[in-house]
Hints:
Blueprint: H1 20-24, H2 34-48, E1 57-59, E2 82-90, H3 94-105, E3 111-114, H4 123-126, H5 138-141, H6 145-148, H7 159-172, E4 179-180, E5 185-191, E6 196-201, E7 206-214, E8 223-225, E9 237-239, H8 245-248, E10 263-267, H9 271-283, E11 286-291, E12 297-298, H10 317-329, H11 344-359, H12 368-390, H13 394-399, E13 412-413, H14 417-420, E14 426-430, E15 438-439, E16 443-446, E17 449-452, E18 455-458, H15 470-474, E19 477-479, H16 486-491, E20 497-498, E21 502-503, E22 509-511, H17 523-544, E23 550-552, H18 554-576, H19 602-616, E24 622-624
Parallel strand pairs: 2-3, 2-7, 3-4, 5-19, 7-22, 9-18, 10-11, 10-18, 11-14, 12-13
Antiparallel strand pairs: 1-8, 5-6, 6-7, 15-16, 16-17, 20-21, 23-24
Helix pairs in contact: 3-17, 11-12, 17-19
Amino acid sequence: MSQLQGPDYPQPLAPPAADTVCLLHPLKAQNLDIKRIEAKYEEERAKRLRSDGIAQFQSAKGSFSRFKDDIGRVPITRESVTRETKTLIVGGGFGGVITAVKLKEQGIHDFVMLDKASGFGGTWYWNQYPGVYCDVESYVYLPFLEETGYLPTTRFASGPEILEHIGRVVEKWDLASNAYLQTQITSMLWDGKISRWHIHTNRSDHFIAQFVVMATGTLHEPQLPGIPGIDEFERPLFHLGRWDYSVTGGDSKGDMTKLANKTVGIIGTGASGVSVIPMLAESSGKLLVFQRTPATVAFRENWKTDHDLLSNLKPGWQRDQMDTLASVLEGSMSDVEVTALEGLDVLAIRGLFQEAKKAGVEVKPEEIPELMKLANIRLMERLRKLVDETVEDKSTAEKLKPWYSFMCKRPVFNNDYLATFNRPNVKLIDTDGKGVSYLTKRGVMANGQEHEVDVLVLATGFEFYLASDYEHRTGIKIVGSSGKTLDDEWREDGPKTLFGIHLRGFPNLFNVGAVQSGVGVTWTHTTYVAGEHIAEVIASVLKKGRFEVIEPTEDAAADWGNQIKEGGEMKINFHRTCTPSYYNAEGKPEQYSARWGTYPKGMTEWTRILKDWREEGNMKGIEKQ
């Protein structure tokens, strides 16, 4: 069991048991019509396909820039800065903070951190809407628990607790003294004559750095629906990622008293929308939920942490938890049990393998893909049954059922969402895959009818598309050694990296991100591994002193890209069958090179490769100057 598991923990939606007959014919035994289910998947997918793909959304730029304003911030006044530094870190979220700590652990204190926000936290700084919480176990998500001596109060931490803990880390390592906040980088230019990066900001700052770490993160740039009328809407309107408590009252715990006698509309039922909808339902006079595609929703068990456990935990327990979780969810058929929600699909297939082993049934390698597909369908059938068991109105229940494969959209874990539709003040307005048509001065036009609202919330997601232009997403123009921008270099054939960290054509530039990197259940694991690697490499270069510029060779980047492409093509093939979402570029996964994918063999192998590479000591695949 997880070392931090509650004593009476019932695994929510645990993998179903499988006997020998069910293992060999798992769906036939349950009288499930596979062809009918797959036909339904395709029918629902086709309803939602659009020729414009991700272009259906618009950015919070120009006349819409107000939707990404830092609401309620206190302006920081300072003079422009011109200074040299060994390392510059872009971003004050998990990636930036973890890398900064790892640099200090290597004895490197000459670095600066830049972030456009008014505080540290990245995604958690920007997303402070009611009900915000992490859907990954806090014991493996919150960084540096051992080092700070802190244990989260519950299994799944709330947004405020996460933000508070980031502040704890910042204070312990005195990162604020290295930071310039409310500072947006506008350009980065490599100067081959002096082997340094020139970094310019919107405050007329000029930093000169030997190394740059890009930790710009995701899920913080609001994405707006590309529908007419946003500018004409006359009532309070804001994006969920920039929650306006001056309109709603209350705080992240709810109690939005200003909504008591009002009709509130919310567009979007993705992960963030699912979190906030129950809170809005409790506070609003009436709540209208506009849905294009139902979410995949499961229950979660959120116990309080037994803080006496801290004294019994062995040193290194948090990293061990991360490694174990990654190993199990990447297909390890060990007997180790973990409490992992996003791994329901993997745990379902793992359950079948375990039962096969007990029954003495051998599963042949060629049978695994079909078995995985069947396990996926069984899991989704159970989730659709959960809707029937929870939602009282049968018509509403049908509209809330997700008809697509597990992991086509981000799964959501919330105990209150489905039951919210039993409340008399909540109405689901399902658009049958079409989405809302436009906004009027006073409401939302959907299904040919105007729905008047007093307040409208956009839960329409964030600019997450990894393959979209970097400058567009971040506002930073990066020019490498060839004079080309990062976007130009990557546009045709995709990213050119080694390990997803070192960038070909961009010397001394490191990336902490998902592209071509190892990615697992918890983003913290990726940033730990990447941050350690970057800090050790920088320390090695500074210590050796024989060279000061490093960049992956063309062959090394090509070889790594080919490994990514292999797995990326498999992922693209899967996502071709999926309903549109940010996972598949809104139904157009093939428009991007397969080299935009993540490392296909998972976190465990990626971690091992990086560790072995550093231990070899010769920086294989790296050009040195």
